[in-house]
Amino acid sequence: MATLQKIRNAGPVIVIVIGLALVAFLLGDVNKIFSANDRNVAEINGTPVSIQEYQARFKNYEEGMKMLTGKSSLDDQNQKYVKSQVWDKIVKNYALSSTYSDLGLEVSDLELAKIVSGENIQTGLDPLTKQIFTDPNTGQFNSQAAINFFSTANQSEEGLQIARFLENEMRDNRKYTKYASLITKGLNVTSFEAIQLYKERTNVVDFDYTVKKYTSIPDSTISVSDDELKEYYDSHEKDFEQKESRDIAYVTINIVPSEEDMEAAKKDLEYYKSEFAEIPVDSAIEEIINYVNANSEVPFDYRHLTLEELGDSALFYASSDSVAGPVYENGAYVLKRVFDRVMIPDTVEARHILIQVDGEKIKDIDRAEEIADSLKTLIKNGADFAELAKNNSADQGSAIKGGDLGKFTEGRMVREFSDACFTGNTGDLAIVKSQYGIHLIEITYQSKPKKEKVRIAKIVNQVRPGNNTISRYFTQARDLSVNSGNDIDKFDDLIAKENLTKKIATEITPETEIIAGIDNPDALIRWIYKDDTEKGSVSEPFQDGDIFIVAVITEVREDGIAPLEQVKDEVTAKVIKKKKGDILSKEMQDVTTFDKTAKNISFSSSRLNDDGIEYAVIATATQIEKDKISKPIIGENGVYVLKVTSKTGVDQIESDVAENDRKNAERRLYFTIQRQIFEAIKDAAEVVDDRSKFF
User: Fold this and answer.
1) 252: closest CA among 683, 511, 550, 40?
2) Band of pLDDT at residue 165, cut at 50, 70 and 90
């Protein structure tokens, strides 16, 4: 694992990104491996994507991440991130590979070298390289760290695989960046458009107006026939285009631990109490840390606490060989033991020189300690610490600042480093071994006064529902599911009878990742999009951690034009509004007096005083002649009549006057394209996403 450690120390590395990239290399180009008979998870540009391909990519990304992070499993957030990255990669590969070839888009070796070295910073660093080799202390790309890694990667098979994989990712990312640039650079704002934008912004009008709101006519007084609805729907079909989605109503039933569960958790913790107390008070801190981490659900917290921070005087002043508890706190039973009573500052400042094993000049940790000891002797004899740090420290982020780490509190540094800084004294030189290597530390500042603080070792046992408790809640959820009988009204009646809270989730798509109150909605979404799930279907109970979920489908939308029956309420509202507009327009034909005034209105304005957003009214006001009374204008909130009383602006301007408008418009256009380009690619590729049927 030496190569991985180099990467971590070089940046340090954001290992998640490397993990995602590594698997792309390990997998290679698998677009055409699987047979046409495989089940398909998607179709892109008419080409099927098999479930086997997707799973292979996902597994490799997942395994790569676990290997590089040293974890046996990934949390939900990282699982979702991998899922998203794998999908985006597949879409881009299938949608754009032929386009790259047609356009001749390539990335040369020289260009790749510039990406690694950071020489292309003016055009934007490759995002993958930047994330991996950005120094967290400075926020700057560490080009030397990147160069060092790639120049030594061939020293191990693992390092070579990662380097090849990173190269593949950088090439892909750079190709996509070039493709996006071709699109954005091909769009511009003309001088004519800039002048128009300038006029729309600077030519302003004042006008008097009056309005009759649609709300002045009750909806109940307007009759609408089916023929009128059909006529409006047919003539406005494009307004009712929709993407595939579903609406659900659902309940979440909390699985609450019983008294029996609480007693069981307490009894389990009591088992550890005597053993915890038997650890000698003068034993090495590692023995207590290891015991806590082996038996507690919450990792050991090495920070020292004052009496005020702890908020428990009995515990603060307790003997270090006694164990308090079990006590119930925040859903868990806890054993507590105080130890390591010291006088330490709240804040320290230090600088360090980090010596790391590199397998070449520094072959082992003993040699690293020897170098640190030699540097310590030089400093004691008058050598400049800052110069030695710049020339010898492996921590490049602090080395450029003479090793200075600034001020920090406990918890900011690894424990061994932190303990040396807080328990020592200002001016001390200390040599400390940590997971990063050997540190030569000089303490340059400690806040005063020092305060009495203690460490608290805790064994935490969360109270969780037992099998009997889970079974009782499952029965309640199952009965709700079965007795609803795939009937929305029955579902509503039963949850009201059970005093359960109905929740609503609308426009759920196969890509939806968040449903309120549900941590992991994947199983529910798979059910929502099963072939036999339809409007009115009630789900079986789904368990998500400490809740059971039962849902009913309340609406089904398919890709394309929504049927009239589905949007009937919306169409009815629009027809009623149109009829009201016709009625009010006739009533306002002869208006000559006005009761409202609007000032400094330009074509780019949107809001009309407290009457809301009224684009049609504003557009009319900026175009009509001064002192002329307009015809009735059917607006968003009512029907208006207006008379312009003042016009300010210019008709003829030079293009250079509107240069800022042109630049601003191009900037807006650029960011709009950047946000929407990937969605446009997916739309053009006619992506059929069937992932929800499988996972």
Assistant:
1) 550
2) low
What's residue 664's pLDDT? 85
DSSP 326-378: EEEETTEEEEEEEEEEEEE-S-EEEEEEEE---SSSS-SHHHHHHHHHHHHHH
Q: In terms of CATH architecture, what is 348-447? A: Roll (3.10)
Mean pLDDT of the chain: 86
User: What is the distance between the terminal CA atoms of the chain, rounded to a whole angstrom?
Assistant: 33
Partnered with residue 351 across adjacent β-strands are 404, 442
pLDDT at 25 over 60: no
Q: CA-CA distance, 288 to 279, in Å (whole number)? A: 7
Which residues, other chains included, contact 368 with Cβ-Cβ below 8 Å and sequence gap of 6+?
Answer: 355, 356, 357, 362, 437, 438
Both tokens of 634, joined, read: 């059917």
Measured distance CA(148)–CA(157) in Å, rounded: 16
Q: Measured on CA atoms in the order 244, 250, 252, 253, is the torsion positive or negative?
A: negative
CB 576 within 8 A of CB 219: yes
Question: Is the CA virtual torsion 274, 278, 281, 285 positive or negative?
Answer: negative
Looking at residue 688, its pLDDT comes to 82
Q: For 247-256+466-558, CATH number?
A: 3.10.50
Contact 42, 90 (CB under 8 A): yes
β-partners of residue 353 are 440
204-242+565-648 placed in CATH 3.10.50: yes
Do the beta carbons of residue 324 and residue 335 sit within 8 Å?
yes
Cis peptide before 257 (omega within 30 of 0): no
- Residue 247, both tokens: 């609406």
Which strands form 688-689's sheet, in the order they lie side by side?
47-50, 40-44, 688-689
Among candidates 358, 357, 387, 378, which has minimal Cα distance to 369? 357
| Overall average pLDDT of the 381-400 stretch | 92
Q: Are the C-beta atoms of residues 177 and 125 closer than 8 Å to each other?
A: no
Average pLDDT over residues 28-36: 40
User: What dihedral do alpha carbons 11, 13, 17, 18 form, nearest 10°?
Assistant: 110
Residue 426, both tokens:
């200002």
CATH code 3.10.50.40 region(s) in the chain: 348-447
In the predicted structure, residue 589 carries a pLDDT above the cut 80: yes
pTM for the whole structure? 0.64
**Does residue 217 surpass a pLDDT of 60?**
yes
Distance separating alpha carbons of residues 433 and 252, to the nearest angstrom:
50
Amino acid at position 630, single letter: S
Nearest Cα to 62, choosing from 23, 14, 27?
23
CA distance 12 to 137: 10
Q: What percent of the chain has a predicted confidence (pLDDT) above 90?
A: 54
